[in-house]
């Protein structure tokens, strides 16, 4: 529950993974060479409560009621088809994958790079979309490949697993959860996977085909994936997009141009334009003559116009923020705003005073009010009195946090050292 969410960018070489991460990465912070932070936009409650002027995020930022909340991102080394048959890269890929909660599959939709990431023309990106799922399944979960995760842990031991399952009269979920726990499966996840699979036959009668189906459903639950169809600014993209849109679930596809996003942000940082991220709004000195924006020379002006024509006006935005939003959505993460003062939404006394909605924490679906207290601070848990939300409405300890009650103030008993004793 306490664990922070990690999203991994995967895809073949030169698909645009690193560009995509840089684009979502403002201000830039790198934790490890392949690990960084991106910022996901949410509607900040400061807008609803007229507190935009005093909204003061401790991390990330809030612009006109759009709150950018940090999430951990992994840049997974480009995987070349077949390369994972040798050890090296494939194992690194699996290690990275193991820590990820969701995947962003960056696909070069322009067809200008081949399966290995080399320059070409007319390559069909549908190959890449199918390939990645196949790659994860066959390399990580193959029931016949001795180097895969599941082969070692499931297939080989299956006889023993079945005997124990029958002897201990365990539930299917319990038995499978033990087997899948090494891949980060909780009982809830295994429960969802069984519901999704529709498999009702008793575990002791499952054959290889059933096991394959189980693994398929496990993958879908374990690695929710959003596909970023990247490089939409290039010529052949449009044709491929139409084809792909017909074939796959559109809710999991987002059109992106990481290059355009990086360009616009760079131009903004250098003072040439104002760019409202996630939208098609770009303003230059021509639009805002009284501003302190720098004037554009002909070359820059043309480049900006091209980005507008090829990306912003055609598709509505560069798509980079939408990918992050969708990824957080499929995970069901909920932004929670812990405050000390439920009336002015500040974090209480001392030098921290003043700013509203300082903290925003993304929690997993199903997190209760009391569990969140424990996540915030041991002291709040230890000296817990009660929790309340806007309007001094008390929240029971076992209330599951939703977006309707995500501004929470905790009251603690005297004895808690520094924490929430403020009277309201
Ligand atoms: N036209 C265009 N080019 C892009 C876009 N995104 C990335 N690129 C270019 O594609 C090339 C590869 O981008 P990277 O971000 O390095 O790709 P990667 O997936 O990280 O590649 P590896 O690290 O080799 O696996 C670079 O030259 C980028 O500038 C885009 O949206 N449009
Ligand atoms: Mg890269």
From TrEMBL:
<protein>
    <recommendedName>
        <fullName>OBG-type G domain-containing protein</fullName>
    </recommendedName>
</protein>
<dbReference type="InterPro" id="IPR031167">
    <property type="entry name" value="G_OBG"/>
</dbReference>
<keyword id="KW-0547">Nucleotide-binding</keyword>
<keyword id="KW-0342">GTP-binding</keyword>
<dbReference type="GO" id="GO:0016887">
    <property type="term" value="F:ATP hydrolysis activity"/>
</dbReference>
<dbReference type="GO" id="GO:0005525">
    <property type="term" value="F:GTP binding"/>
</dbReference>
<dbReference type="Pfam" id="PF08438">
    <property type="entry name" value="YGR210-like_G4"/>
</dbReference>
<dbReference type="InterPro" id="IPR013646">
    <property type="entry name" value="YGR210-like_G4"/>
</dbReference>
<dbReference type="Pfam" id="PF01926">
    <property type="entry name" value="MMR_HSR1"/>
</dbReference>
<dbReference type="GO" id="GO:0005737">
    <property type="term" value="C:cytoplasm"/>
</dbReference>
<dbReference type="InterPro" id="IPR012675">
    <property type="entry name" value="Beta-grasp_dom_sf"/>
</dbReference>
<feature type="domain" description="OBG-type G">
    <location>
        <begin position="22"/>
        <end position="276"/>
    </location>
</feature>
<dbReference type="InterPro" id="IPR006073">
    <property type="entry name" value="GTP-bd"/>
</dbReference>
<dbReference type="InterPro" id="IPR027417">
    <property type="entry name" value="P-loop_NTPase"/>
</dbReference>
<dbReference type="InterPro" id="IPR012676">
    <property type="entry name" value="TGS-like"/>
</dbReference>
């Amino acid at each position: 529950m306490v664990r922070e969410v990690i999203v991994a960018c995967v895809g073949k070489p030169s698909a645009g993974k690193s560009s995509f991460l840089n684009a979502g990465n403002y201000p830039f912070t790198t934790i490890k060479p392949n690990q960084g932070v991106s910022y996901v936009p949410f509607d900040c409650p400061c807008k609803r409560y007229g507190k935009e002027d005093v909204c003061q995020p401790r991390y990330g930022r809030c612009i006109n009621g759009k709150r950018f909340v940090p999430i951990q991102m992994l840049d997974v080394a480009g995987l070349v088809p077949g390369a994972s048959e040798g050890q090296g890269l494939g194992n690194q890929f699996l290690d990275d994958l193991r820590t990820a909660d969701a995947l962003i599959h960056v696909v070069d939709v322009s067809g200008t790079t081949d399966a290995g990431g080399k320059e070409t023309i007319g390559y069909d990106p549908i190959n890449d979309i199918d390939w990645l799922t196949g790659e994860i399944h066959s390399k990580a979960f193959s029931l016949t490949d001795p180097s895969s995760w599941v082969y070692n842990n499931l297939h080989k031991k299956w006889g023993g697993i079945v005997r124990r399952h029958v002897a201990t009269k365990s539930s299917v979920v319990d038995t499978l959860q033990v087997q899948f726990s090494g891949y980060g499966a909780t009982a809830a996840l295994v429960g969802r996977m069984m519901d999704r699979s529709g498999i009702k036959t008793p575990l002791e009668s499952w054959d290889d085909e059933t096991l394959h189906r189980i693994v398929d459903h496990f993958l879908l639950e374990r690695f929710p994936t959003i596909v970023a169809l990247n490089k939409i600014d290039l010529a052949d993209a449009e044709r491929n997009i139409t084809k792909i849109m017909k074939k796959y679930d559109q809710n999991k596809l987002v059109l992106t141009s990481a290059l355009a996003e990086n360009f616009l942000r760079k131009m903004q940082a250098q003072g040439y334009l104002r760019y409202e991220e996630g939208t098609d709004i770009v303003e230059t000195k021509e639009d805002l003559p009284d501003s302190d924006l720098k004037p554009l020379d002909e070359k820059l002006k043309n480049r900006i116009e091209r980005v507008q024509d090829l990306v912003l006006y055609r598709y509505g935005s560069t798509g980079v923020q939408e990918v992050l939003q969708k990824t957080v959505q499929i995970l069901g993460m909920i932004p929670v705003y812990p405050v000390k003062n439920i009336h002015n939404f500040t974090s209480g006394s001392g030098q921290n005073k003043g700013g509203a909605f300082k903290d925003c924490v993304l929690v997993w679906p199903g997190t209760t009010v009391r569990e969140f207290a424990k996540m915030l601070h041991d002291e709040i848990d230890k000296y817990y009195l009660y929790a309340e939300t806007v309007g001094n409405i008390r929240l029971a300890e076992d209330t599951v946090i939703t977006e309707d009650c995500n501004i929470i103030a905790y009251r603690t008993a005297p004895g808690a050292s520094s924490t929430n004793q403020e009277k309201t």
